[in-house]
Write a structure and sequence with these properties.
By secondary structure, this protein is an alpha/beta fold. 21% of the residues lie in helices and 33% in strands. The structure holds 1-O-pyrophosphono-5-O-phosphono-alpha-D-ribofuranose (PRP).
Length: 181
């Protein structure tokens, strides 16, 4: 199967993303002003964004991962399932929580609430994409690379049915490529 033929339009090229991430990294580095930071990456979507971002941040970082899934069916708010919790202690540490996209806001809000119970010194959030049109709960990310419209985007970590994460750019998926489940 040829992945590229499933893409209607490229929104952000690898070069666009790289330049934006460098700017974001600079802002994060300035804000933390030499403090140690624990980066927590929400799997799976943020693994590529996280790995690129942290290589531009000149701070003493440690990294941990949390893997969550959520059920979207029905009208009730999504229930978050933690598939893999943290492997480090974040008590009294500055935490920067990273996700690829904030859509309804449920994932980031709930993960932030869960981690806040571990008594970090501070907790901030960083996303590559903010989709304001999708918001169902009040949640604002502290660092946002891009605001995106109401498109179904894939690539650079974002999937459709677990596919397309490895595309080096971010694009809009063609309607024909979206199979109804
Ligand atoms: C996606 C994405 C975010 C979340 C955002 O994760 O990676 O974590 O949805 O949506 P929300 O704001 O509506 O909660 P998904 O559950 O699809 O898992 P994935 O990271 O493995 O792709």
């Amino acid at each position: 199967m040829n992945y590229l033929s499933d893409i209607k339009e490229i929104l952000y090229s690898p070069r666009d993303i790289d330049e934006r991430i460098q700017g974001l990294a600079k802002q994060i580095q300035t804000d933390y002003n030499g403090e140690d930071v624990v980066i927590i990456s929400i799997l799976k979507g943020s693994f590529i964004f996280t790995s690129d971002l942290i290589r531009y941040i000149n701070l003493r970082l440690t990294i941990d991962f949390i893997h969550v899934s959520s059920y979207r069916e029905g009208m009730t708010s999504k229930e978050l399932i933690i598939n893999k919790g943290l492997s480090s202690n974040i008590n009294n540490k500055h935490v920067l929580l990273i996700d690829d996209i904030i859509d309804t806001g449920n994932t980031l809000k709930q993960v932030k609430e869960i981690l806040t119970k571990e008594n970090p010194l501070s907790i901030k959030t960083c996303v590559l994409y903010n989709k304001p049109s999708g918001r169902k709960v009040e949640m604002v990310a502290d660092y946002v690379a891009y605001d995106v419209g109401n498109y179904f985007i894939v690539g650079y970590g974002l999937d459709y049915n677990e596919k397309y994460r490895n595309l080096p750019f971010v694009g809009i998926l063609r309607e024909e490529a979206i199979t109804k489940i």
